[in-house]
Amino acid sequence: MKIDILTLFPEMFVSPFNASIIKRARERNLIEINTINIRDYSRNKHHTVDDTPFGGGAGMVMMPEPLFECFDHLKEMHGGQLGRVIMMCPQGQPFTQEYAKELAREEHLVLVCGHYEGIDERVRENLITDEISIGDYVLTGGELPAMVVVDAVSRMIPGVLGEAASAEEDSFYHGLLEYPHYTKPREYRGLAVPDILLSGHHENIRRWRRRQSLLRTLERRPELLKGVELSKEDKKVLRELLELLQGLEL
Ligand code: 4GX
């Protein structure tokens, strides 16, 4: 997948995209990430990219010209047509794991990062296909949201994660919160690892983990259970957990 990121601050992306799994994915040519400095497409003498809002008010708005010019160039490089063009903004569609999986199937993504009060509405109306919000809080720019989207989308591209990791993600645990993880040593400062994980009994371990996932989801994010395919066994466990929790809470 090719990802073009339009930003006024390309330097912000250097470290995050040169570490860990994203770095490896780039080295393996599974993803190609390009940052494009919007300022390079400003045609005026001082390379201005923002101006005061028509109608008055505080703050600055990103001008249409550099972005339209930048898009002309991008389109030229991609045979006249672009695929998904995503703007990061608080007014966008909530970003979810499902959204990440959908974007991971695209060949080419363009991410537009706004700064200041935002971007001239004509950009949104004429160049943007998707608007994404990473959550209900206000950031100083779209750069961090773009990094979040690139990270979540990249790990859904086949080969980016180890094969075992991806298989597990998709088959069994999707939609529920993760069960607790432990590693060596089996006792640390008197803190023990649950015996069942040391038992070697794979079916019991699988059931324990599933139960832990269900318990955590029930306690912390019960609304997530609506979107999960639950087996007969899951439902039995949930009824049991509910009864247990009610007993404790009353
Ligand atoms: N999830 N922001 C974008 C400037 C802006 C405003 C409007 C385009 C249109 C955010 C979020 C977020 C702050 C990024 C405002 N650009 N983006 N920026 N939460 O808060 O995505």
TrEMBL record:
GO terms for cellular component: cytosol. It comes from the Bacteria. Residues 1-226 form the tRNA methyltransferase TRMD/TRM10-type domain. Gene3D superfamilies: 3.40.1280.10, tRNA(m1g37)methyltransferase, domain 2. Pfam families: tRNA_m1G_MT (PF01746). Coiled coil: none annotated. One of its GO terms (molecular function) is tRNA (guanine(37)-N1)-methyltransferase activity. Specifically methylates guanosine-37 in various tRNAs. This is tRNA (guanine-N(1)-)-methyltransferase. It comes from Desulfotomaculum nigrificans (strain DSM 14880 / VKM B-2319 / CO-1-SRB) (Desulfotomaculum carboxydivorans). The lineage of its organism: Bacteria, Bacillati, Bacillota, Clostridia, Eubacteriales.
